[in-house]
Write a structure and sequence with these properties.
single chain, 195 residues, 5-stranded antiparallel sheet, 47% helix, globular
């Protein structure tokens, strides 16, 4: 319903921000990462939002980056993972770390989140990897200069797809990045070119 809300930061809570946009105060639940990145009250910020509707509640969730929002949407698409668990994961790992954890089967990184056990972490990895397989990522760019990606490059492309980018954009973003870098570094460099 709302793609983003831009306005003045009025208040910061333990797990929410209040933004005044056009005279309306929006209470937006968010991660600790977004709370820290929001800065001080009185500052103008943009939050990429998602309206979560249940029978008895309408909650607004928002994030300071589109990657964090995409990660949130992927997490709540996993059976048994609700918005609170998704925020807990977002509060302890960056989108790049999360994507690497999914691609490399690193459940330990995901279980750092409060209330997320080993079973839930494994379910997150399994279901998101299945979505990756459905995307049928071809990690070779077909062009005049055909490029063979290293394992790190392939993992970085897969991780970018986990973050919500399409495979072609992800492949273009990693092209030209030093393949000897670690997966997380490649992802960070690719994200800066995608923004």
């Amino acid at each position: 319903m709302y793609y983003y809300i831009k306005g003045k930061l009025v208040q910061k809570g333990e797990n929410y921000l209040v933004i005044d946009a056009g005279g309306v105060g929006y209470m937006i639940y968010t991660s600790l990462t977004s709370i820290m990145e929001a800065g001080d009250a009185g500052r103008e910020i943009t939050m990429y939002t998602y309206l979560h509707v249940r029978e008895d509640v309408m909650d607004l969730f928002g994030f300071t980056s589109i990657e964090e929002k995409n990660m949130f949407l992927h997490l709540i698409s996993v059976s048994g993972v609700g918005p609170k668990a998704a925020l807990a994961v977002l509060s302890v790992v960056t989108p790049a770390q999360f994507a690497v954890a999914v691609v490399t089967n690193d459940a330990k990184t995901i279980t750092k989140a409060s209330g997320v056990g080993a079973k839930m972490a494994q379910r997150i990895i399994l279901e998101l990897k299945d979505k990756l397989k459905k995307e049928e990522i071809d990690v070779t760019i077909n062009s005049e200069n055909e490029i063979d990606f290293s394992d790190n490059m392939s993992e970085a492309v897969s991780a970018l797809v986990v973050l919500g980018y399409n495979a072609n954009d992800a492949q273009r973003a990693v092209r030209g990045i030093d393949a000897s870098l670690g997966v997380e570094e490649i992802i960070k460099k690719a994200l800066s070119s995608l923004l």
